[in-house]
C-alpha cells in the first residue's frame, strides 16, 4: 500500500515510537533546509550565497513533500523542486556564482531527493549513497566552523560554506537518509 510504512519487524506497527522519531528527524531536516534558505535570502551577511539559499529552500520543501511517499501532486511537486535545485547547483557551479563546496553539496542533495522514489535493478536505493555523500562533504566544514579550526590565514568561511549552510546540508542529508525507514539502511536498523 502506497503512503504507509510496512511492518519492519514482527509485531512492529507504522505508529511505533521509533518510526515516529525517524519521521520527525526527516521533517526536522526539511525544516532546517527551509529555514537556512530563508535566512540566506533575508540576511545577506549570513554567509549563504543567494543561489545556495534558494537551493536550500527548494531542497527543504522537496524533502517535506517527498518524505511521506505519497503518489500524486506532492511527489511531482517535490521532484520539480529538487530538479530546480539541481539546475541551480549546475548553473552556479558552471558559472562561478557560488563557491565549489556549497554548489557541490546542493547538487548532490538535489540528486538524492530526485532519486528518493527510485530503486536500482540490484535492489539498492541510490538516494542513500547520495545522502551520505552530502553529509560527508558538509560535516567537516560544520565541525571546523564550530570549533574554529582554521589555519589563521584563511578568510571567513574557508570552504566557501557558512556554518548554517553546512548544518543545513548535514541535516538535509540525514533527513533524506531517514525519509524512508522501510528501505535500505533503515530496514536493517529497524528490523
How is this fold's topology laid out?
Blueprint: H1 17-42, H2 50-66, H3 73-95, H4 100-114, H5 126-147, H6 163-178, H7 184-190
Helix pairs in contact: 1-2, 1-6, 2-3, 2-4, 2-6, 3-4, 4-5, 4-6, 5-6
How does this model look, in words?
There is one protein chain. By secondary structure, the protein is mainly α. It has one domain (17-183). The protein contains seven helices and no strands. The protein has helices spanning 17-42, 50-66, 73-95, 100-114, 126-147, 163-178, 184-190. Helix 1 runs antiparallel to helix 2 (50-66), helix 2 (50-66) packs antiparallel against helix 3 and helix 2 (50-66) runs parallel beside helix 6.
Helix-strand category = mainly alpha
Silhouette: globular
Strand content: under 5%
- Intertermini distance: 19 Å
Main β-sheet: number of strands, strand sense, barrel status? none
Question: Can you give keywords for this protein?
Answer:
disordered N terminus, single chain, 191 residues, mainly alpha
TL;DR of this structure?
The protein is mostly helical and 191 residues long. It has helices at residues 17-42, 50-66, 73-95, 100-114, 126-147, 163-178, 184-190.
